[in-house]
Amino acid sequence: MSDIISVLPDNIANQIAAGEVIQRPASVVKELVENSVDAGATHIDIIIKDAGKTLIQINDNGCGMSETDARLCFERHATSKIKCADDLFNLHTKGFRGEALASIVAIAHVQLRTRQANAELGTSVILEGSICKEQTPCTMEQGTSFLVKNLFFNVPARRNFLKSDNIEYSHIHEEFLRIAYVHHEIAFTLYHNDKLVYNLPPTTLKQRIVNILGNSSKERLIPVIQATNIVNVSGFIGKPEFAKKTRGLQYLFVNNRFIKHSYFHHAISSAFGEIIPATHFPTYFIYFEIDPKLIDVNIHPTKTEIKFQDEKIIYGILNATIKRAIGSFNLGGSIDFENISPIDFSTVPQKGIPQEPLITTQSGYNPFHSQKQKTTSRYDHFSSVKPSTGDDGWEKIYESIQENTPAEAIASNETTQTAMNEILNEDEGTFNEQLAVFQTLQKYIIARVKSGFIVINKEAAMERILYERYIRCLSEKPQNSQKLIFPETLKFSPQDSDIINDLLKELNNLGFDIEPFGNNTFILNGVPADLLEDNAQETIEQLLESYKNNLISLKISKKNNLAHSFARSVGKKKNKCLSEEEMQSLIGELFASEVPHTSPSGKKICITFKEIDLIRMFS
Ligand code: ADP
Ligand code: MG
């Protein structure tokens, strides 16, 4: 018998470990830049040659290393970031395994130059495949500079498997962005083959995104902010027109680390619902701040997946937060986005059954909330934690409405019919002015009727009234147009221009006196009287957005679609606080409409509470 087991020498062990940590040049860039961030640098330069195959150089102005540490940092499991196992549950640095430098130096030629603030001289160390060739003092500014050359020089199989420079560089570019989108307070430059690709000054998160994506992105970002006792969510989402055909601009970060998480991705994209075409991907930059104890830290350094303890609750919070951000934006341009008050999730428990969140809404309206749900449950934000299986809900609702003729629909809703009779003064055929009405939550109108009271969803009611009005405009009686003193020139995207040209007659009937002027430009001479105050370009764009979405999701006629889309966008706009007189005339108009209890998009408009039911509830 002979012993056959031997412990591998460090350089071979490191080479094997390197295979896991360093897969391509981009992995080196990621590890080195993360170390610079951990070292407290405020300025980091990244210099790349030949997609990193020839040179990767990272210079920072961070804390630097002592003479001893400059040698020790290349040892495996050498780290300054954790000292004991408990530290693992309170990590605030990017690295902690002490593996990256040991791996890099095992498979490349490396030069390190580093100096601490209080040291007179810096240290230069040259290594080739884990073997230290030279260590000398050097003069330099405070900070650290790593030069990595000839990557995989001793692992030809790896080197041969590297992809083209274009592909390898695109990986570097992406790793760079994943760090730059988080550390907006750090200045970065990125050079590739002597060309300056990015020069990013320290700035706010929004400005960092704009600096990377270009100025045109500035107007397209909607802020997102939500604090809860499990997770703080912040960041930006792109307006619908910022949605991309390719999955590119979707960034989710947890405690400043980029992650991929398909469940949370679903929470975000399903919140966008139908406002972006099914073929497009929403843009988002979402940042989670979470107690490190609530996530699994023992993740592999190259993996971007993370495990959370409260995934379902976070899904609900995320989904509701994004819906709300979209809802606020959809109300039009008058909202001060910087001052949106977040939903109060302070009652979210750490464990157990979620309790009802206290919701403070500024606008009181979320257009996506009730489309697919008949009633609002007290656990609404959390009952939606299960990803919905598809977006055919809308179509079904619409079909069912189409199937009901108006008369039958009214008859099927007996209580509404009774309330309606009570509200309308039958003798004179006019509306009873004595009706007691008031508004609550900015969303509902409560009106007393003889047998109890009726609660009306203001926006859904508005949508119903407007829809029927617009159908009439499109079929028989065009709506009057209010002439503009100064005609406006409007410019649209080529796709929208085509649709407008196709809808010119219908838009005229709706009160838009609009004519084509060539080159995707239109002259607007008049608008519907009740929209005189509004931004016409925006109104038409919103109308088209909804129209386009309906083209994809609903099989309805052009006329129906247009009336439907216009009613929705105007309904949303006009959903302000109403005077008593306005409420009364709204109720009057609603009950004079053909289907007073359901909006054209299938939302419930009113619920009647009978006195007898109230008495029963209290007994
Ligand atoms: P980890 O980041 O997991 O600690 P690394 O192998 O990446 O492991 O780095 C080892 C150690 O080297 C770090 O813990 C840190 O103390 C030191 N170090 C690496 N890069 C820098 C840098 N740019 N500035 C200062 N110290 C650094
Ligand atoms: Mg590290």
Q: How does this structure look, described?
A:
By secondary structure, the chain is of the alpha+beta class. The chain folds into three domains: 10-202, Heat Shock Protein 90; 206-339, 2-Layer Sandwich (Ribosomal Protein S5, domain 2), CATH 3.30.230; 379-619, 2-Layer Sandwich (Ribosomal Protein S8, Chain: A, domain 1), CATH 3.30.1370.100. The protein is 36% helix and 22% strand. The protein has 19 helices and 22 strands. Strands 5-4-3-6-2-1-7-8 form an eight-stranded mixed β-sheet. The chain is elongated and about 95 Å long. The N and C termini lie far apart (89 Å). Mean pLDDT is 79; it is low at 331-342, 346-413 and 425-433. Magnesium ion binds at residues 31, 34-35, 95, 100. Residues 31, 34-35, 95, 100 line the site of magnesium ion (MG).
> Strands of the largest sheet, in order across it?
5-4-3-6-2-1-7-8
Span between termini: 89 Å
CATH topology of the largest domain: Ribosomal Protein S8, Chain: A, domain 1
**Cα Rg:** 31 Å
Outline type: elongated
**Strand coverage percent:** 15-25%
Gross CATH architecture of the largest domain: 2-Layer Sandwich
Corresponding CATH superfamily of the largest domain: MutL, C-terminal domain, regulatory subdomain
CATH class placement of the largest domain: Alpha Beta
* Average pLDDT metric: 79
Number of helices: 19
In total, the number of domains comes to: 3
